[in-house]
Amino acid sequence: MKLHRHHLIETSTLIALIMLFVAATHADLIYPIMNVDFGPDGSGAGRGQPGFTVIYMPSTNFTLNGVDVTVASATEDNVDWRYRDYPIDSGDYTEERLSRDLLYTDNLTLTFSGLTPGQRYELQLWSWDGYWMNYTGSETTTWYLGDDLTPIVEHTRPYNTAPSVNGEYSFITDFLSGPSGSVTLKGEGANQDVPINGFILTAVPEPASFVVLLLAGLTLSLRRRRTSILTEQKERLQTMKQHSHYFIKTTAVMTLAFILAGTVQAGLITPIMKIDLGAYGPGATTWAQPGFTVMYNTTTFSGNGVDVTLDSATGDSYQNRYRTDSEGSPVPSDSGDYTEGRLSSDLYFADNPTITFANLTPNQRYKVQLWSWDGYWYTSGGTGTVSTNWYYGDSTTPFVTHVRPKDVLPSVNGEYSFITDFLAGAGGSMTIRGEGANVSMNGFTLTAVPEPASFVVLLLAGLTLSLRRRRSA
Hints:
Blueprint: H1 2-29, E1 31-39, E2 53-56, E3 61-64, E4 67-73, E5 80-83, H2 96-100, E6 101-106, E7 108-113, E8 120-126, E9 138-145, E10 153-158, E11 170-176, E12 183-189, E13 193-196, E14 198-204, H3 208-223, H4 232-268, E15 271-277, E16 293-295, E17 300-303, E18 306-312, E19 319-322, H5 341-344, E20 346-350, E21 353-358, E22 365-371, H6 376-379, E23 385-392, E24 400-405, E25 417-423, E26 430-435, E27 439-441, E28 443-449, H7 452-468
Parallel strand pairs: 1-2, 15-16
Antiparallel strand pairs: 1-14, 3-4, 4-7, 5-6, 6-13, 7-12, 8-11, 8-14, 9-10, 9-12, 15-28, 17-18, 18-21, 19-20, 20-27, 21-26, 22-25, 22-28, 23-24, 23-26
Helix pairs in contact: 1-3, 1-4, 1-7
């Protein structure tokens, strides 16, 4: 029975550790490639959904994190946009800015290219048009994958009922990217005009490898069982009395393992640096963003061992500015939940700017969030949008096309920023490059993203060593 108990504990611990490995690794790998809110042409006020990248008309082709997206019509109709009076945020419903504005066209197609061949992706797509709020009935769009005549979803939504819970008039589908790394979804409607408010595209890791690992570990543990055939039935009866006790212990180990994965990762994901590119020094509190380090009149600086160099791909010199209204107040200014006025009211700008990070940890994943908005256009009465393509190093494929309106103040934190992540190379450096004249940069954050699987390996090694040294009577 003691041998029985020893192997039961060892097997239970192995199950918990493998589940920890699966959960931690999946948590690291399942993340959206892009959150997109299709917006108007930039003339509206504060219409960007928080946490989403707003794509303004007339942009129907854009790139985010290396994936190219094209919105078009299967019948070559024009893609148009609208802004509606509905829905309205209320209670737990917070997607007003996502669902009020939309693109639409006859027989809409949504094409993704630059995907990883053989990779599974999940798509959540919002489709609702507030134009029909004063009508009765419903509208149905049939969605297809490529040229397949079998629909993947029949998406029906009522005319006169606004969404009241997040995601209500969206649908979720998944697909496997083919050898070309390109997939097209096609929507057909009875009224032909198919609306699309926005979408989330997510890469989904294949869990089969983790299941194989689990089975291999259990098989190895079970093969080591040494129970006498003559006493097996007696041992079984005695062990049954202990099952309840050991089940409780196993459940506790598994629960603690999941908590450990979340706690360790949450505790270690902290920014290496938070930089406010300013027009004045740290003492000028009117312009210094709280919690950020202010850099002014310098293009080289360091933080926590990482060196940063601001330059221009065409040799242009950096200038810094701060923006105010006619009364001398910063533009933008803090208001309500928006608290980044001091970050976005001053800026550096240059033609074709570059940001180079050096002394990074080789093969470490990093995340950069960069704010880019210039209040000059707002105070001078400009209209339309400003668009900047951003690239890694010498790449000719932009990882993001960052579009922001000239005449719309940011109203939620992070609204005119973008987020990207990259893997530091063997040399421990990375350069990101913006293409265009007078590209503005308000500031950025740099964060090292830990790989949770390494913590699981360390924990597994420690517990395995402990089990080997265990002494049983």
